[in-house]
Write a structure and sequence with these properties.
Blueprint (H helix, E strand, L loop, with lengths): L1 H16 L3 E4 L3 H12 L5 E4 L11 E4 L2 E4 L10 H6 L5 E3 L7 E4 L4 E2 L2 H11 L1 H4 L8 H14 L6 H22 L22 E3 L6 H6 L16 E2 L4 E5 L5 E4 L4 E3 L2 E4 L3 H6 L3 E2 L4 H9 E3 L3 E6 L11 E5 L2 H10 L11 E6 L6 E6 L4 H4 L4 H16 L10 E4 L13 E3 L10 H6 L2 E3 L2 E6 L12 H16 L4
């Protein structure tokens, strides 16, 4: 009896030392944190996810002849995503931008030296612009463009006009990369650091959600999967996190849940718009949240039963004549004014041979996300036929999808950027955002997600690394 009592006391003490953890959000950062905790013996976990699925801004859906990614699509370099799957033959190089075609709004295929120069300066803008405190990305790029493009062709009026029109294309393309509504919003300086390797890898099988299956060990051997189902609660939106003592999480259904630690992973867009914390977070963290921009882009995904493009085609870029811009509403008037001019590019999907993705950027994103799909379809086809109809016999798409990340209250955008007016070379606001809220010296509310990574923000690999970082922070408390 005495031995059994001692054993029960020992077991109770061991389990008392194992903490309870609530993870807010089942995106890739939350899933990565959960896996790391479980693999290190911390299994008293609840994951509350507002959507009806896991993955967050990774969202792969069946469409056309295969699958497509509504959100994250490309693996950028030899990062943690690449390292996780490199022996599974899941990634391949995307031959998308090696030989793009650029078309003018009068239907002509542009192939001049100017177009090569324009493609070079837009592709390399992030590397070549001057990084100046207090200067926006747009201002820095305009200075670069003036020096390398406009001045080069100033004695050739016809080409100079085309170069001036190229600024519109440059603006739209840069916004596509930055995820901002206007290039005055991001800072010219940034702390982002690319990793080595191929920056444009795509998934051979299905889509980006393969990384979730690999992280959870559901692939390649399902018998080894991490038992997460019983810890996962979908369609459970967190509305309040009280942290003055033992953290308490309140859900939209009115239930409350206590835990020793809470890992918060929602996007910086959600953190900006929602009053989640009681008491409010310290000024240093409030400033960190304000420092990160979070706007959005749109993918328009078109399925064509009859392919009209060539097998050698990979990407079409659209460059508008300013005069066509001014008169475009006379040609297509449905939806917000001139929204069709924000369709920047049309890109082939390697694994889905009858599908093209239109990439849309700019400040009309919130309004465009509300447009009926039939209007999106008609507007997209107007642009495609206007630019490419001279060289291609354009067929009609059978189905269309559109992403809507910005107007979804559980995301409110696509990926983060560093806002102009906040950037300082020696200050990483992402680190400030990642700092835990403490009770005494104990971290009780911890922060993960791509926007909390100091050098890999806006990426899936940054999100994974941040989730593992916060799991490690908890694991270190319970040696």
């Amino acid at each position: 009896m005495k031995q059994r009592l001692l054993w029960l006391l020992f077991v109770s003490q061991v389990f008392a030392e194992k903490p309870s953890v609530i993870i807010v959000g089942a995106g890739v950062s939350g899933i990565s944190a959960a896996v790391k905790l479980i693999e290190n013996g911390i299994t008293n976990i609840k994951i509350f996810e507002a959507e009806d699925r896991i993955g967050g801004r990774i969202h792969t859906v069946e469409f056309g002849d295969n699958f497509i990614d509504m959100g994250a699509q490309y693996c950028h370099g030899e990062n943690v995503v690449y390292d996780t799957v490199k022996n599974l033959d899941l990634l391949e190089h995307a031959e998308l931008f090696s030989a793009p075609k650029m078309y003018y709004s009068n239907g002509s295929h542009l192939q001049s030296q100017l177009i090569q120069d324009l493609e070079t300066v837009v592709t390399n803008y992030d590397r070549d612009i001057n990084r100046t405190k207090g200067v926006s990305l747009g201002e820095a790029f305009l200075e670069k463009y003036q020096n390398t493009i406009l001045d080069k062709y100033k004695n050739d009026p016809e080409t100079h006009k085309l170069a001036s029109d190229g600024l519109i294309f440059a603006h739209s393309t840069i916004l596509m990369h930055e995820g901002a509504f206007h290039w005055s919003r991001p800072a010219s300086g940034r702390h982002y650091k690319p990793v080595k390797g191929d920056q444009m890898m795509v998934w051979k099988k299905r889509g980006y959600d393969m990384i979730l299956d690999v992280l959870l060990k559901r692939y390649p051997d399902p018998s080894q999967k991490i038992p997460i189902e019983e810890k996962l609660f979908l369609k459970k939106k967190v509305t309040k996190i009280s942290w003055s003592g033992t953290p308490v999480v309140e859900l939209s259904d009115g239930t409350t849940h206590k835990a020793d630690h809470v890992i918060v992973t929602p996007s910086v867009g959600v953190l900006t718009h929602e009053d989640l914390f009681d008491p409010v977070v310290p000024p240093r963290k409030q400033e960190a949240i304000k420092s990160m921009g979070f706007d959005g882009i749109i993918k328009i995904i078109l399925y064509f039963p009859e392919k009209w493009w060539h097998d050698s085609d990979s990407t079409f870029f659209f460059l508008w004549d300013r005069r066509d811009l001014e008169g475009v509403t006379k040609e297509f008037s449905e939806g917000p004014n001139s929204w069709v001019t924000n369709l920047v590019a049309l890109v082939r999907v390697p694994s889905n041979p009858h599908v093209l993705i239109g990439w849309v950027s700019g400040g009309l994103i919130p309004e465009m996300e509300k447009l009926p799909l039939d209007v999106i379809k008609k507007g997209s086809m107007f642009v495609i036929r206007k630019f490419l109809g001279r060289d291609y016999n354009i067929t009609e798409p059978k189905a269309v999808l559109r992403s809507d990340w910005h107007n979804n209250p559980n995301f409110r955008g696509t990926y983060s950027y560093e806002k102009n007016g906040y950037f300082e070379e020696e200050v990483h606001y992402q680190d400030h955002l990642a700092e835990p809220l403490t009770h005494g010296t104990t971290p009780v509310v911890l922060f993960a997600g791509e926007a909390t990574h100091p050098t890999h923000y806006s990426t899936v690999h940054g999100a994974i690394e941040s989730g593992r970082r916060e799991a490690d922070r908890i694991i270190a408390l319970y040696p």
